Amino acid sequence: MGLIAQLLVNMLQIGAVYVLFALGLTLVFGVMKVINFAHGQFFTLAALMIAVTMPEFTERFGFPAWVDYFVCFALALLTVAILGVVLYFVGFERYLRDLIGSFILSVGLLLLLEGVYLWIFTGAPRVVPKLLTGQVSILGGALETQRLVICGIALAATFGLYQLVNRTKLGRALRAVAEDREAAMLQGIRYRRISFYGFMIGSGMAAIAGGLIAPLTAISPSLGNDYLSKAFIIIIIGGLGSIPGAILGGFLIAAVESFAGYFLDSSYATIAMFMLVMVFLLVRPQGILGHAER
Amino acid sequence: MRSARAGQIVVALAAAAVLAFAVLGDDEYTQHLLMWTALNAVLAVGLRFMLLVGETNIGTGAFYGMGAYMGAICTTKWGLPFPLALLAGGLLAIVVSTGFGLVTLRTKGPYFMLISFAFTEVVRLIYTRVEWLGGNSGIIGIFPPQALDPWMSVLTFLLCGGLILMMYLCEQSNLGRVFRAIQNNDAVVETVGIDVVQIKLVCLVIASFSVGIAGSLHAHIYNVISPGDFSYLVPVFALAYIKIGGDANVMGAVIGAAILTVLAQMLQGMGSLEHVLFGGAIVASMLVLPDGLLGGGRRLLRLFSRGRA
Amino acid sequence: MKPIVKWAAAALMLAAAPAASADEVLKVAVFAPLSGAAAGWGLGAKWVGEQAAKEINDQGGIKAGGKVYKVESIAYENGYNSAEGAKAAQAILNRDGIRFIIQGIGTAPVKALQSLSERQGALMMQVAWGKSVKGPQAPLTFTNSNTPFELFGPLFDLVKKQHPEVKTVALLNPNDATGHEVEEEAEKQYRARGYDIVAVTWYERGTTEFQPIATKLAQTHADMMDLSGAPPGDSGMVYKELAVQGWKGVKMQAAGTGADAMVKVGGDAVEDVYMGNAADFGGPAATPIQRKLNEGALKALNEPLNILQLGAWDGLMAVKAGIEKADSIDPKKVAKVLPTIIFESSYGPTAFGGMETYGYPQQMLVPIIVTQIKHGQTVEIARIIPAELEQRLAKKP
Q1: Together in a domain, C178 and C242
Q2: Does B126 touch chain A (CB under 8 A)?
Q3: N or C: which end of chain C has fewer CB within 10 A?
Q4: pLDDT value of residue C12
Q5: Is there a single domain that holds both residue C244 and residue C294?
Q6: Which of C242, C275, C308 is the last residue of a domain?
Q7: What angle, 0 to 180 degrees and rounded to 10, lies between the N-to-C axes of helices A191-213 and A169-179?
Q8: Residue B130: left if φ>0, alpha if ψ -120 to 50, beta else—which one?
Q9: What is the average per-residue pLDDT within A276-284?
């Protein structure tokens, strides 16, 4: 019982961040028809920014760690937003709905930004000070308290996005554009503006995920790469552009990582994930909840 | 028709020029630089070949790797003659790509792109777990026969040039016209009674065969291979060659491969700056020269001729 | 046979070319990852190589064949994989005509360079582990610091003495060339000492989420966890998660090269970890040269020096001693005399040995340093002089 509980706890906790990361990627794809290989760079930047600014902040003002964390988190989101605006207007706006063009552009950005981060922040791993001490036990599965809190925030952010997409006017516009751009434009939705919002929200999700993972891991400029390849798997399984699909896929991949990682081997778990995707595409090429591409 | 002949002449001239360089340039390093360029050119043209039917095949990296592994095994483990090792690389790529294509070509666009990405990563991870393939250390000591040493660069050029020419001629033939029709609108092609999936499969197999042979050459030129050499970054760089050179025709891919291969060597040893400059070159060319250097050059020429008239 | 003659001729010409000019420069190469996850090692080795060259030049350079050579150390990026390594090898040997490599880091790229350097008659000092890079078939390849084959025996003996209660061990390694080589030797040495190995686990380099891995390890309830080949940052994460999941036992990182990142990431959870390949070059056991270099590294790189980086110093010093003894800059002649001489390394007088293990004397005999993390610091608990070195030094009058 203790073991299964531990594996489930691991799955939920890893999955919450995967979902957040993949949601951004799938949203950007849905609206812009762009697979953004540089998505992980927003994630990495947010985590790096927190790791760099937080010690400075603590030294200067001496607030409790969690206050510093939230201030630095906000600062990190702002930095990512600025980067997002620049990348959108200088680059992605020209390659909307151009799968190959945007792919190359984003791969160029992936290399460029990783190099720049390495240059500025150096390759040595950084850590964020502990926010909360202590640990909790859920049905015999052990978990740090701060992981539990962060997992909760991630789930809340996911729920928030879900509400935004389903209940607000902006959300309806995003969905309309994702489903049928021409029809949406005929109804008076301004495509360019909506795609900009979509890109910023998607990149923001990556930044939130990065900010949340910061206290839990060692942060280096290549942090995002591991998440990016898993997020690809997640959004294929869930169906490109599908938000519920990304949520389902995120937890599925987390389950594979947690259970296959235990019963097989962590390195076989990675192979298992890729295999899963290929089998999946055979049976259901449009993903669990995706629509067939026309 | 005229442009087609012009293209052929350009290809022939370029081949002759590099051939001469290969024979004349006695410097070992220059010869290797030229061989790397030739291999990268085949990769770029092979990737572009699949783009003709509108698909981004990241699996190019996997087929290149299979060719390399097959060639390495033929030479180091089975002791087969060098030409057979080359051919075996191509044949394995044909066999695997046929299976891969039959299964995956039912999907297209972003799905095909991501599934071929997953395929490349799976294949790479499998190499690392198979002891017989050297696991993560890879295979070392893959040498072509010593008598071939002085001729290796010439041979590489002839072979790579031949593969590029083959793909070029396919593109110029009726088959190439069907490819482009599929790229434009596969539904229309379907209505004429052509099996789109079958044509795409043919396209995939031709490209994979070329890339597989190039992979086997790679193994014999680098003398060592390891799983890390065949990640998804291989086709990603190839795509950069195409875009920077210009994707309108084969020569763009070749020129892009030449420029970036030489640039990468010049940046050797600069650490993270290498990534910055390489990524920067890709981004800059996407922003400033969306149709690549060839397209930019052509526009420049047109501007001049208009000015004169 | 002909191409080899041609190459040898070219090599000689290239090596001899600087001799014609007024200032004679001997270029040597550091071959290491300068970007990516392992960049820290490479940048450190690059810096150490430059310091060693400066030291030699300040003392008047290298003398051979009636000439005096100034040394220039150049770093080449090997990308930690064989394709990049093969390209850098071409640049080193054929573009820049370098005949002496003073430090090569990374098993896959080192093998790529070796397949060319042995063929072209260039001498390589390197730290790649694994027996396959050494032996009579590779007479121009030397190793300039300890590898698991030297380290694990003495290290495990010491830990067994300190913790006789430990019966079971679980192993975790990254799934790459280095990881596999480390694991094989560790398993052998543990079994030889009667330990029960309860799990052998692998993970992909670049993994960021270590909870599932820690769960798997914790469930084995092993008395000792050996994360031998894992990078320090990764081990910090694993020990942290292990602590959360309630595991307590002896912590071992048999091939661990440094505590800095591990402590930063793991905090209290990495207290008392044993390391076999780390050192405190600022501590009392270090030699004056090592302390000076360590101070410089802290200033220049913001990181203390580690053993792999220091290899560049000892590699160049060995090359210098070999050239002067052979009275020639022909790499083959230098390689012939290297196993016979005793020279001054950063650890003190040293020689090459390892005939028994490798079938060829190409392993630099330097002390085995056992360290433990105490209060977040690397503390040396033993510097064990290899028996073979003691014999060699005793033989010398």
Answers
A1: yes
A2: yes
A3: C
A4: 45
A5: no
A6: C275
A7: 110
A8: beta
A9: 78
C271-327 confidence digits (pLDDT tens): 999 999 999 999 899 999 999 999 999 998 878 898 999 999 999 999 999 999 999
> What is the total residue count of chain B?
309
Q: How many domains does one find in chain C? A: 2
- For residue C236, tell me if it sits in a domain: yes
Task: Characterize the bridge pairing of strands C67-77 and C25-32.
Answer: parallel
Count of CB atoms situated within 10 Å of the CB of C291: 16
Rg (CA), chain B: 19
CA distance B5 to chain A (A): 29
Please tell me whether residue C8 adopts helix, strand or coil conformation: helix
pLDDT, one tens digit per residue, over B70-113 is: 999 999 999 999 999 999 999 999 999 999 999 889 888 888 99
Q: Do C212 and A257 touch (CB under 8 A)?
A: yes
Q: In angstroms, what separates the C-alpha of B294 from chain C's closest C-alpha?
A: 28
How many angstroms separate the CA atoms of C305 and A44, rounded? 28
Say if residue A231's pLDDT is above 50: yes
**Chain A residues whose beta carbon lies within 8 Å of the beta carbon of residue B56:** 99-100, 103
The candidate with the shortest Cα–Cα distance to C88, out of C105, C66, C71, is C105
Residues of B in contact with C83 (CB under 8 A): 222, 225-226, 228-229
Average pLDDT for chain B = 87
Q: Which of A103, A240, A275 sits opposite B122 (nearest CB)?
A: A275
Compute the distance between CA of residue A83 and CA of residue C71 in angstroms, rounded to an integer.
45
pLDDT greater at residue C129 or residue A242: A242
Residue B88 belongs to a domain with what CATH number? 1.10.3470
Contact A267 B129 (CB under 8 A): yes
Mean pLDDT of C90-105: 93
**Is residue C375 in a domain?**
no
- Assembly ipTM: 0.87
Q: For chain A, what percent of residues have pLDDT higher than 70?
A: 97
- For residue A260, tell me if it sits in a domain: no
| pLDDT value at B16 more than 80 | no
Q: Does B275 touch chain C (CB under 8 A)?
A: yes
Per-residue burial over C322-358, b = 16 or more CB atoms within 10 Å of its CB, e = otherwise: bbbbbebbbbbbbbebbbebbbebbbeebbbbbeebb
Mean pLDDT (whole number) for A170-180:
91
Q: Do C29 and C138 have their domain in common?
A: yes
Q: What is the pLDDT of residue B31?
A: 85
d(CA C365, CA C390): 10
Helix H, strand E, coil C: the string for B55-82 is: CCCCCHHHHHHHHHHHHHHHHHCCCCCH
* Domains in chain B, number: 1
Give CA–CA dist A17/A215, Å, rounded: 13
Q: Which residue has the higher pLDDT, A168 or C180?
A: A168
Q: Which residue in B261, B247, B250 sits closest to B293, CA to CA?
A: B247
Subunits adjacent to chain B (3 or more Cβ pairs under 8 Å): A, C
HEC states along chain A?
CHHHHHHHHHHHHHHHHHHHHHHHHHHHHHHHCCCCCCHHHHHHHHHHHHHHHHHHHHHHHCCCHHHHHHHHHHHHHHHHHHHHHHHHHHCHHHHCCCHHHHHHHHHHHHHHHHHHHHHHHCCCCECCCCCCCCEEEECCEEEEHHHHHHHHHHHHHHHHHHHHHHHCHHHHHHHHHHHCHHHHHHCCCCHHHHHHHHHHHHHHHHHHHHHHHHHHCCECCCHHHHHHHHHHHHHHHHCCCCHHHHHHHHHHHHHHHHHHHHHCCHHHHHHHHHHHHHHHHHHCCCCCCCCCCC
| Contact at CB, B272 and C82, closer than 8 angstroms | no
